[in-house]
Amino acid sequence: MENEDFMGSAGSLTVLILCITVALLLRSFYKRFNKMKDRENNGDI
Predict the structure, then answer these.
(1) Whole-prediction pTM value?
(2) DSSP letter string, 1-43
(3) pLDDT tens-digit map of 1-45
(4) Radius of gyration in angstroms for the set of CA atoms belonging to the chain, rounded to a whole number
(5) Coil, strand, or helix at residue 28?
(6) Where exactly are the transmembrane stretches of this chain (predicted)?
């Protein structure tokens, strides 16, 4: 039974790290997209 508990906590930890990584990537792409949009609006392209 202890092994199942360990696997459960390891699985939830993996999911937590995965969610944080995806959130950081989305934030990075969102910032990049906004910078490109600002350049387009200012005519710097």
Answers:
(1) 0.64
(2) -HHHHHHHHHHHHHHHHHHHHHHHHHHHHHHHHHHHHHHHHHT
(3) 455 556 678 889 999 999 999 999 999 999 999 999 988 888 765
(4) 19
(5) helix
(6) 6-30
Give CA–CA dist 8/14, Å, rounded. 10
Q: Which residues, other chains included, contact 39 with Cβ-Cβ below 8 Å and sequence gap of 6+?
A: 45
pLDDT at 34: 93
Contact 45, 39 (CB under 8 A): yes
Question: In the prediction, which pLDDT does 30 show?
Answer: 96
